[in-house]
Structures are given as C-alpha cells and as structure tokens.
Amino acid sequence: MQATDNVTLDNCADEPIHIPGSIQPHGALLAFDIDGALQAWSDNAPQLLDLTLALGAPLASLPLPAEVHAIAAECRDLIEDGEAPAIALEVAIGTHQFDCIVHAYAARIIIEFELREVPSDAVAAFALKAHAAIDRFKRQKSIDSLLQLATEQVRAITGFDRVMAYRFHQDDSGDVTAESLRDELEPYLGRRYPASDIPAQARRLYIINTLRLIADINYRPSPLVGRAGAAPLDLSHSVLRSVSPVHIEYLQNMGVGASMSVSIVVNGRLWGLLACHHMTALQVPYSIRMAADVMAQVIASIVQSIEARERALMAEQSAAVRTRVMETLLHHDEPARALLQHAPALCLSLQAEALVVAQYGKLMVHGDIDLALAERMVASLPQSGDEIIERSALGDWPEELRDALAPWAGMLALRFDPSTSGWLLALRREQINTIRWAGRPDKIVRVGPLGPRLTPRGSFDEWRETVRGRAVPWDATARLAAGQLLGEMHRASVARHVETDRARS
Ligand code: BLA
C-alpha cells in the first residue's frame, strides 16, 4: 500500500497523498467495509488498543468500549454514497486516553484513536476562548486586521510557536500576510512562496478536508496492514494520515518540529491557510483543532463579505473616476492632459503603477517611467485593430523592446481616439520589482537530501524563476474598469468631434 516511494521534486503533484499507506503513530486506525467487516488497520493498533485483529473480523465482535460501538453505529446510519461526516468522543482504553473519531469515506468506515495527553477540562477552557475570539473576528473591518487577529488567537488556543496567515494569489503563489510568533523567532512576514510549495493535489484535498496536523515531524509512520491487493485505503478525511516525505523534508529544513494548517476556503476556492509551526513536537488535541477549524470557517465568511464590500467600493470608485474624467474631457481642449489630471485615481481603478497618455503624436506620463521608453511602447502599438491591447509578460511585447522594458512588464492599452492616435496605457511592473523579501533570505536552517530547493530561500528563488518577466496579470476587475472607461472616452470624443464640427460650420 505504500504510495510514497520515488517521490522527487519533479513529480510532486503526482504523489497520491490521500493513499499514503501509513498513518502518523500518535494514534491507531481501524478500517471496515460498509457491512462492518475489518479491512485494514495500522500496524500499531493491536498493541495500542490492546486488541487481536484479523481480516474480516466483524466490528461488533471487537472488544472496544461501548461508546465506540455506539458512534460507529451512528456513523453507519449516516452513510450516503459511501460517505459520512466525522463523529468524535473521548474514550479510555487500558491506561490510554483517546479522542476517537469515526467517519466514512470511499465505502470504508474509518475509526481513528488519537492519543490525548491534555485533560478534557483544560480543553473546555480553550473552546470558550475560541468563542470569544470569533466575536472579535466579526468586528474587524479589514482583511489585514482580521488575519492578524486570527494568527494571535489561533496561537493562543493551540500553543504553536508561530502562526502565519498565508494568502494565495491568482497564480496560486502565496505570501505571509500576518504572523504571530515567539519573540526569539525570525519573522516570515512578507515572504513569498511559489505555487509548487503546495502542489495541486494537496490544494484539492485541503478544500474538502480543511485541517491537518503533523504532530511530530520526526515520526516513524505506522504502516497499514490488512487486505493485500485491495484498493489502497483512502485517507483523505483521516486525522492521522501520514504526510508526504517531500513536505516533511521541507519542514525539517526549516527547523520545524510540528506543523498544522487550516484552510480558509472562500467561494469554493482555497483562499488562504493559517499555517502553524512548533519548534518541537506538539500534539494539539482534536477538539482544539476543531475550534481552530471553526475559526477558519468564520474567517472565510468574513473575508467573503469584506471582499464583496471592497469590490462594490472599487466599482463605485471606478464609476466616480469615469464621471470626473468624462466631465473634464468634455470641457478640455486637450483630452490627453485631461486624462492626466485624473491619473492617480485612474491608476487605482486599473490597479496600475504608471500611466502613459498619447495623442496627436504627443506624450505625457504619470509615474516613474522613462519618457523615451514610453514613446517606444506607444510606437509598438498597432495602427488599427483591437481597442484594448493586453500584455502581461515580456514575451507579449515585440522582441526589440524586451531588453529595454525593465522594470515594466504589464500593459493595458486603450485606444480612446483612433482618429488622433489617442492611447491610454496603464502599466504594471514585473512582480519581482514589487515584492519585498522580508527576513534574512540567505539564512537556510538546514538542507536535506533533496537539496536547497526545500528551504525558504530555495522557495523564494523558485518563485522568482516562475514569475521572471511577468507582471501581475490583468484580472476581470481591471478589464471591466478599462472597458467601461473606454466606452465613456469614446462618447466624450464623439461629443467633442460633433462640437468641433459645429464650431467650424
Ligand atoms: C504541503 N506545503 C504543504 C503545506 C504547507 C506548505 C503549509 C500543508 C501541510 C502543513 O500543514 O504543513 C507550504 N508551509 C508552506 C509554506 C510555508 C509553510 C510555503 O509554513 C511558508 C512559511 N513542497 C515543496 C515542494 C514540493 C512540496 C518543492 O516545497 C514538491 C515538489 C510538496 N507540500 C508538498 C506536498 C504537500 C505539501 C506533497 C502535502 C503534504 C500532505 O498533506 O501530505
């Protein structure tokens, strides 16, 4: 059942992380078919649970505490299409105290026994803290303040040394936008990581299963035993799932002893993660993890409403700019100059960092752009054809311009008055030039067998390679703002031409 052999840096996204064939050994696992016949178990189960196990043994016949049988029966009743959500309770077996978590997935009933060291009254206090934290989340007005508070509160209830809010960009790269950490640790705030640090299959899994814990990075996996030759046991929703060895090396290189991450899923998309590190092993009890998971869900819904508000505000601002531009254009002899008057607001509305306006062969710029380069950019535009021309990467520009373009890479060009060669260019810098690398980039904690790629520095270099020569691509919001602006400008230019003609006649 071992599915993690031969994993390298090149085939990372192909690793079937949902069927690792083993679990983390801070607990034990039993898997049954829908009829309750034992199909697989972790190698450590007989000893940890004080059981004798045999393939096909009926669940009902196993000498497990009555409450375990009760939630297993409840789980069986809930099964639909081979799946049932998790039910959990505390049990004692021999001298051990466990959180017992039962769920069904892919036509298997999976019972996990997670060793618990923290007494339940201590855990109850954390649930209250989580409740208070959620009240405070709801009062946050900005995503930044929400995420900052989230990192502090998750750290307070879980005890991790470092909690980061990791936010994804459109291209699935991400950066640490908020952080709460122990004083002596080096901050990771502001750091950028490539999409490949969390490969596609992991992202997919993290949307359907929103929390994962690696309690001890140096664990020795307990292999699953049981039905040889059968389909490997799908651990997508298991709490003890053994983790990709590549990711383990990554964390070891960073000097991390335990890791937990909680997904922030907004509109069905993995929007961000709360990523937690501990320098030594740390087994956060199940109910505290669930409290963190609930926090992440509340955060997701607040993010969703803040983003909706921001989008509405942005649309409002863009409309206001358009109206002002329109008014100025109608009363101004030189449209280009009129546009430039509103340059800061236009930059905001198009999310651009500089503007170039050209008309009647004359040129004006707003922002830190070289005039000669701006001239060459305008000259590179076609005489006729599309009204909006979009470039996001060096490769989109004519070859002769590419060497001269730095630090610019993205352009949205609007042909606002074809008869006078009127162009408005919104420009974006290469992403490399817009990112601040916080912390000490050259500090590599350790390097394991797969080399320096699996270190913060290696990750950042990888990200830089992936986005070399690329600006942040123009998204739907910027395109919409550009299209609407162009529409208004056309109307203004028609109105002006009509007026000029009337004046002449
Ligand atoms: C998983 N990678 C992850 C996870 C995180 C990161 C948060 C989720 C698992 C967890 O909770 O620990 C990445 N962690 C980060 C980043 C920071 C951090 C960016 O703390 C920044 C501070 N990883 C690589 C490369 C590969 C890779 C090169 O860097 C593959 C070639 C693989 N990462 C990888 C895999 C998983 C993963 C396979 C899934 C692990 C699992 O759930 O089994």
Automatic annotation (TrEMBL):
Entry's EC annotation: 2.7.13.3
Keywords per UniProt: ATP-binding, Chromophore, Kinase, Nucleotide-binding, Phosphoprotein, Photoreceptor protein, Receptor, Sensory transduction, Transferase, Two-component regulatory system
Highest taxon of the lineage: Bacteria
Annotated Phytochrome chromophore attachment site domain residues: 142-297
Enzyme class name: transferase
Annotated signal sequence range: none
Catalytic activity: ATP + protein L-histidine = ADP + protein N-phospho-L-histidine
Family statement: In the N-terminal section; belongs to the phytochrome family.
Record's protein name: histidine kinase
Organism: Duganella aceris
